[in-house]
Every structure is written in structure tokens, then in C-alpha cells.
Amino acid sequence: MKAVTKKQRMYEITFDQETVGCSNNSNILAAARRNFLKLPYGCFSGGCGMCKIKIVAGDYEVGLSSKAALPDNEREKGYALACKTYPLSDLMVRVMGR
Fold first, then answer.
1. Fewer Cβ within 10 Å of end Cβ, the chain: N or C?
2. What is the pLDDT of residue 17?
3. Position 57 confidence tier, pLDDT thresholds 50, 70, 90
């Protein structure tokens, strides 16, 4: 049985006035930290909600996270946790904890 791997693609993530590169294999928080952007975070695993963002434009997928940190009604409105969000296109993002 072969392991299925996604082809790596690079996208631009725009946070307010700053833009960084991020692959579809990397979460938004990791890309921001690699580029020295200061985003709030606590656990880096989807449990605390400190890295909450609002996706203003673009396509993305999210990994598992706590519903206490990101309730369903917020998910439906385009909110996500940067530590569990992976781009599928260029994104425009608003950081909530700034």
C-alpha cells in the first residue's frame, strides 16, 4: 500500500498589511512564525483559541480543534484557528487577538 502525499503548492497569506508565503502542507501559524510575524498563540494544537483568525477571502481546510476554542457558529462565519488552518489558495486573513 502506498502512502498518499499531497503535491506541495505555495500560496500567499495576507495578514492586514503583511504577506507571507505558506504551502498547503503548513498551517498558517507556522508560516507566520517563520516570517517573524507576531500572532498570538498558546498551545499550537487547536485547544486554546488564542490564534483565532477570520478568513476574509480564499479557500482553506482545517484540522481538528476544540469546539470550546472554536464553536460551530464561528466556524460557519469564517473563523478558524491559525494553528489548524491550511491554505488551498491565496488567503486574506484578519487576526483577532491583535
1. N
2. 86
3. very high
Beta-carbon count within 10 A of 7 CB: 6
CA atoms within 13 A on the CB side of 41: 18
Q: Name the grid cell of 72.
A: 460551530
Measured over the CA atoms of residue 75, residue 78, residue 81 and residue 86, the dihedral's sign is positive
pLDDT of residue 96: 83
Q: Which amino acid is at 33?
A: R
Q: Is the CB of residue 58 less than 8 Å from the CB of residue 87?
A: yes
Task: Judge contact between 17 and 64, C-beta under 8 A.
Answer: no
Query: Strand pairing of 91-95 and 10-15?
Result: parallel
3: cell is: 502512502
- Whether the Cβ atoms of residue 79 and residue 96 lie closer than 8 Å to each other: yes
